[in-house]
Amino acid sequence: MCGIVGYVGHEKAVDVLIGGLQRLEYRGYDSAGIAVLNQGGMHLARSVGKVRQLADLVYRDWDAQFIAAARVGIAHTRWATHGPPIERNAHPQVDGAGRIAMVHNGIIENYKALQQRLQAGGHVFKSDTDSEVLAHLIGEYYTDGNDLLRAVCAALGQVEGTYGIAVLACDQPDRLVVARRGSPIVLGLGHDETIVASDASAIVAHTDQVIYLNDDDVAVVGADGVEMRNIHNVPVSREVSRIDWDAKAAEKDGFDHFMLKEIFEQPEALRNTIRGRLDQRQATAIISGLALSPREMADIQRVVLMGCGTSLHAAMVGEYFFEDLADLPADVEQAAEFRYRNPIIQSRDLAIAISQSGETADTLAAVREAKHKGALVAGVCNVVGSTIARETGLGVYLHAGPEIGVASTKAFTSQLLVLFMMALKFGRCRRLSREVGLGLCDEIEKIPELVRKVIDHNDLIAEVAAAYSQAEDFFYIGRGYLYPAALEGALKLKEISYIHAEGYHAAELKHGPIALLQENVPVMALLCDVPGKEKTVGNVEECKARRAPVVAIVTEGDEAAAEYADHAIPVPRTSKYLAPLVSVVAMQIFAYHVARLRGCEIDQPRNLAKSVTVE
Ligand code: F6R
Questions:
Q1: What's the CA gap between 522 and 198, in Å, rounded?
Q2: Is 28 in the pocket of ligand 1 (CB under 6 A)?
Q3: pLDDT at residue 91 tops 80
């Protein structure tokens, strides 16, 4: 959600910043902007639309000598919160005197009060954004013209809300000041250059050495390194971490879309998720990030799974895993709601926060609330070093590699796998027999191959998708383990194809939604050959009686199930545990082809952003 890049070094700042923005564009893409400095002063450009439009404008309108000489700058790609996506609301925002430029990710909650105070002092605002107020406030404190760090700290001391910022001052062409509270900032430490970014994907092309800022950290960034402070201007030390993937992992690699690449990558991503985590001898999983002894595991009395969107759907499957395999009561919490209710958390509860990005504001708030209430909190995150991963301290990384497509695909299947392995581990510390544990280890090892078999049906699924690409409404139904899978299938279709799609428990359809079924409202029925199938078949009959066309996901060879549908998509036979995993892969491919046929912007659907860092 909004991407920030900053650069101080020996390369052409404009090229580095535009390149960085392109890598961060999945975080927001309604407008973009850039400000760079050289001895001749500051150049600033902003434009509505994609980074490509900003790049065209800059390379066309800016003096080539200026571009060649500038070595310091900041840039931003926006996902609008305050004010529509128009040029004046794009970032960088500048202070009243035009000496300070700032890019901001987050929300300044008390901006109205600050704005009124500044207006009373003569400040005139040109945008509708909360961010401009912060730029003016920094400018207000930048009185002596030479201590940008102090001005930033003083301004941030007045601010309520969240921010990741990068600030430059016209008369300080050798540095940036950056800060974070609630919105991620990563510093990449190169040779005679430092790159600032909202996440590592804009940094990997330059260096693998990074510092993740903590909340309330402020840093002065120069070409030769960084000076770390807190918001009170007191020195702090932060460790340097290594990024363990390279720039190529964040490229399309010949695929038309990141989403398709990431769907096809799933066997490999799942292999990476499994690697080193199976202990056949003990018939269990190795979850070293959990750092709990078998006795401590046996002592956990309940699991609370929290997440948003696709990660929430993974949590819902996880609930079944923990109940079935670990014999543990499990509850799912929609993370955004968690801290606004009064959830009952007890000391032997384990809260598991599931988040691909590890930055989702709602999930992070739930983590903090669960910790506050005394729960043990673990993270299941993909992005290494992300806020949730660091704040939980305990947990499991997916190791699925960078997910760039805005619609989550490989992260979902890796989340299911991690939750499955966690439930196996907890189960083995409780009542799950060695024999059953061994069987589950065998199943886990086969997962990448099962997913590959689904992907092998890409062409067939594309043909089925062609028959439904003109639909305007779609229902997805499933039960048991396939109920959350139905929700996820519907989410994939609606977010990338803009078809109105609803996921329902198959039994729930008749309690209201069935009123909407007719010959132009198709139903995707999850009919894998696992417990509950016969009942779902009954619900399919009800749909057909209302003349709704039916597409079914069926177990390969289950001709009888396929007969109930107008079109059938086969997936390999699995246990009930893995049925959601293989079905969702088929539905990802289905959604992809529908969206492609409708000419949609698959990797960057309208109104969405990859990582939602505001509540
Ligand atoms: C859907 C999607 C979103 C995310 C949600 C949570 O395809 O990507 O629904 O799943 O915003 O994001 P994370 O997992 O990063 O917390």
A1: 41
A2: no
A3: yes
Altogether, the residues listed in the chain come to a count of 615
Q: Which atom of ligand 1 is nearest to the CA of 409?
A: 7
- H helix count then E strand count, the chain: 20, 26
In the reported structure, the alpha carbon of residue 609 is separated from the centroid of ligand 1 by a whole-number distance in angstroms of 9
pLDDT (tens digit, 9 = 90+) per residue, 104-157?
999 999 999 999 999 999 999 999 999 999 999 999 999 865 699 999 999 999
Question: CA–CA separation, 326 vs 568, rounded Å?
Answer: 34
What is the residue whose two structure tokens read 């009373």?
Answer: 120
pLDDT in tens, 450-507: 999 999 999 999 999 999 999 999 999 999 999 999 999 999 999 999 999 999 999 9
311 lines ligand 1 (CB under 6 A): yes
Q: Which residues contact 99 (CB under 8 A, 6 or more apart)?
A: 139, 142, 145, 169, 170, 171
Distance CA 16, CA 6 (A): 9
- Using pLDDT thresholds of 50, 70 and 90, give the confidence band for residue 81: confident
Q: Is the backbone peptide bond immediately before 402 cis, with ω within 30 degrees of 0?
A: no
Pairing between β-strand 330-334 and β-strand 302-307 as defined by DSSP bridges: parallel
603 lines ligand 1 (CB under 6 A): no
2 is catalytic: yes
Give the closest residue (by CA) to ligand 1 atom 7: 407
Question: Domains of the chain (ranges plus CATH)?
Answer: 3-250 (3.60.20.10), 258-451 (3.40.50.10490), 458-597 (3.40.50.10490)
Sheet of 394-397, strands arranged across: 330-334, 302-307, 349-355, 376-381, 394-397
Residue 609: predicted pLDDT: 77
Q: How far apart are the first and last CA of the chain?
A: 11
Give 214's DSSP letter: P
Upper half-sphere CA count for residue 192 (Cβ side, 13 Å): 4
User: Could you write out the DSSP letters of every residue in 347-373?
Assistant: TTEEEEEEESSS--HHHHHHHHHHHHT
Ligand 1 pocket: which of 257, 311, 354 to mutate (most atoms within 8 A of CB): 311
129 lines ligand 1 (CB under 6 A): no
Whether 614 shows a pLDDT value over 80: the answer reads no
Task: Provide Rg for the chain, Cα atoms.
Answer: 25
The pTM of the full predicted model, rounded to 2 decimals, is 0.88
Residues 6+ apart with CB under 8 A from 401: 245, 249, 265, 269, 272, 410
Q: What sign does the dihedral 465-467-469-475 (CA atoms) show? A: negative
AA letter at 489: G
d(CA 46, CA 132): 14
**Residue 287: other Cβ atoms inside 10 A:** 20
Is there a catalytic annotation at residue 153? no
Low-confidence winner among 203-212, 244-253, 464-473, 487-496 (lowest mean pLDDT): 244-253
Q: What is the mean pLDDT of residues 258-287?
A: 97
As a whole number of angstroms, the distance between CA 258 and CA 255 comes to 7
